[in-house]
Amino acid sequence: MIGEWSTWDRDTPQPARSLLDWVNDRRRARMAVYFQGFGEGADNEFEIGDYPRSLEALRNRLGHKRYQQFASEKGPSGNRAGRPV
Q: Is the pLDDT of residue 76 over 60?
C-alpha cells in the first residue's frame, strides 16, 4: 500500500506514470491513495485539476484493467465489506 502520494509544485506527469507502473508490476500492491489536499483553488497546491498533464497521465494509467472504476461493495472473498472474512 502506498499511503499517500500527490502531484504538487509543477505539472510533471512522469512521477504519476512511474508510480502506477510500479504498482502494476507488483501484484501484491493493493492500494495507492492519492492525496487531494484540503479545500479548492489557490490554497490547495495538491488539487489534481490544477495539473492537467499529470491528470491525463493518471487517467491513462487508471484505465488499466487492474483498476476498478468504482469501489466494490464486496470484499475479495465475496463477503460484504466490513464483515470478517
A: no
Lookup result for grid cell 512511474: 18
Rounded-to-integer distance, Cα 26 and Cα 56, Å? 22
Cβ atoms of residues 56 and 11 within 8 Å = no
Host H or E run for residue 32: strand 32-34
Identity of the amino acid at 4: E
Cα(46)–Cα(38) distance, integer angstroms: 8
Model-level pTM?
0.68
d(CA 36, CA 43): 12
